[in-house]
From TrEMBL:
The keyword Transmembrane helix applies. The chain crosses the membrane at residues 20-43, 77-101, 113-136, 157-183, 189-214. It comes from Halosegnis rubeus. This is DUF4013 domain-containing protein. Keywords: Membrane, Transmembrane, Transmembrane helix. The keyword ATP-binding does not apply.
Length: 227
């Protein structure tokens, strides 16, 4: 499964075009709007993983692709909302504690507030990791039916997310992103930064591998047969 995922973005006659467009969208993603077709494509990659397709989807039908991407962005926002709230509260609490620490009369109170802030920051890290792990299962549940409501069918989503099959696929996906990132860094260093120009395309490739593996993990967890 791991080797198939690494080869997946390069399969098919249109793979070079898809990698080029995907890299450009990653480069333009700070402008927000390019995120919509990019996330729409990732959703199609998840669906390809579920179906066991050997060739990646192509960029096309841009309106439909962007609508699917908007759904994926909404799902992402909801799943990462809790860690975002924890992070904001933790930052505010720590900031208040730092201000009070300057006043010796309330030093003890400041210490207590700092501890509370640290707990919120820790909670944000834990929930970010959990959301990162569960989010692809939510996307997969939505990709299978096309209904955004299925991304929030928590019994189905968590049932898949905490299966052995999904865990294995998730670990492989994380390993792929890490390994590709290391290779990217090494090549950038040894080419004196010239390879940095290709970093966005490498990032898109890594994300395609990541989401394909999670799609396969979802299919294995649900006992779905490849089409």
């Amino acid at each position: 499964m791991f080797e198939d995922a690494l080869r997946f973005p390069f399969a098919g006659d249109d793979s070079a075009r898809s990698l080029l467009i995907g890299g450009v969208l990653v480069l333009l993603s700070p402008f927000v709007l390019p995120l919509l077709p990019l996330f729409g494509y990732y959703l199609r990659v998840v669906k390809a993983g579920i179906d066991g397709d050997e060739t990646p989807p192509v960029f096309g039908e841009w309106v439909e692709l962007s609508v699917d991407g908007l759904k994926a962005v909404v799902v992402s926002f909801v799943y990462f909302l809790v860690p975002l709230v924890f992070t904001l509260i933790g930052g505010i609490v720590i900031g208040v504690g730092a201000i009070l620490a300057q006043e010796r009369a309330v030093a003890g109170v400041a210490t207590g507030i700092g501890v509370v802030g640290a707990l919120f920051v820790f909670a944000s890290l834990v929930t970010v990791l959990l959301a990162t792990y569960v989010f692809p299962a939510a996307l997969a549940n939505m990709a299978r039916s096309g209904d955004i409501a299925d991304a929030f069918a928590l019994s189905d989503v968590f049932g898949v997310a905490f299966s052995v099959e999904y865990l294995v696929a998730g670990l492989l996906g994380i390993a792929a992103v890490v390994l590709i990132g290391i290779v990217n860094t090494v090549l950038t260093v040894f080419t004196l930064g010239l390879f940095l120009l290709l970093a966005v395309f490498v990032q898109f490739y890594a994300q395609a591998v990541f989401f394909y593996l999670f799609g396969r993990g979802y299919a294995n967890a649900r006992g779905l047969q490849a089409k």
